[in-house]
Design a protein that fits this description.
Largest sheet: 8 strands, mixed
Strand content: 15-25%
Structural class: alpha/beta
Oligomer: single chain
Helix content: 25-40%
């Protein structure tokens, strides 16, 4: 596909702006340099915080010391549920600052508490470190908020949210829903969008392979549902799920395949493929009307998962 002619002017502008931060061989750069570039890009794209949302940063007790988290609260909160949010970045990049504005806006738009998790990153902390941190954060939020929890994950965070949903469905207070945004769910395989959009802007199939090797230190057990949620042989009992994918993204088919498995087991799952969008489009929500409209739909999906007052 010729993305230069297919994507609209606003999305192309977003792609070019993002690419302006990265040299062509950025995946070959040292991890520290990649993180510096990613953090710089995130800061440039950061939107002004909503005036009616306050946040505080603190640490939970983790396996290797403190697990940093950030809790967002609106001035006039809706106390029906709390949101547990997992950021993207290939399990290698990102943290509390890189997605701070997205979390704050999610809190402002929904009214719900949002807890963001600074889970441990690879390659220093290989799988299942991030999953362990997700479980700790979920247990803490469920216990202290004393209200149902909705999971939200973006990109790598979508994978983490889904892995947590599979694990936590057997707990006394499992999550009541999950909203996954351009998530990695099905693992490696030359099928669907991983072929048709293998060279999509902002995320290519080769990038996915690199991030997976870093996450696992090159020793992947693709049958582990803590790593690949689609590998779980049991899809029963999962919470209502909505998956948003970008059409021009090697991960787009993951949403279709994952949701079909949930429905096959009698669960509720909706896949929304956002036409003409690319991976990471949340950052372009003020630059692209397509991205903004999708962000609106994601917020509505979260609200629709919550029981009426």
């Amino acid at each position: 596909m010729n993305y230069r002619t297919y994507l609209d002017t606003e999305v192309l502008g977003f792609v070019d702006r993002m690419n302006g931060f990265y040299p062509p061989d950025s995946l070959n750069l040292p991890i520290a340099e990649n993180r510096r570039i990613y953090d710089q890009m995130s800061e440039v794209f950061r939107e002004a915080p909503p005036v009616n949302v306050a946040s505080r940063t603190f640490s939970l007790e983790g396996p290797e010391g403190g697990l940093p988290v950030r809790l967002y609260q609106r001035e006039d909160p809706d106390d029906r549920v709390a949101i547990l949010y997992f950021h993207g970045g290939g399990f290698v990049l990102g943290g509390l600052e890189s997605h701070d504005d997205i979390c704050a806006e999610t809190c402002a738009r929904t009214g719900f508490q949002v807890l963001a998790v600074d889970y441990r990153l690879a390659p220093e902390h290989a799988h299942p470190a991030a999953f362990e941190d997700a479980c700790i954060a979920f247990e803490w939020l469920s216990r202290t908020a004393r209200k149902p929890v909705v999971l939200i994950g973006e990109s790598a965070g979508g994978n983490l949210a889904a892995c947590l949903a599979h694990h936590a469905r057997s707990l006394a207070c499992p999550p009541i829903g999950q909203v996954l945004v351009y998530p990695s769910l099905c693992g490696p395989g030359k099928v669907g969008s991983r072929v048709t959009h293998a060279h999509a802007p902002l995320l290519a199939e080769a990038d996915l392979d690199v991030y997976l090797r870093l996450r696992t230190n090159g020793s992947s057990d693709y049958s582990d549902p803590r790593l690949i949620p689609y590998a779980d042989p049991d899809f029963s009992g999962l919470p209502p799920t909505v998956v948003f994918t970008a059409e021009c993204d090697p991960l787009s088919s993951d949403g279709d395949l994952y949701c079909a498995r949930i429905r096959d087991e009698g669960g509720q799952a909706v896949w929304v493929e956002e036409k003409g969008l690319v991976h990471g489009y949340f950052r372009g929500r003020t630059q692209s009307s397509r991205a903004r409209d999708s962000f609106d739909r994601v917020m509505k999906a979260v609200l629709n998962l919550v029981p009426s007052p």
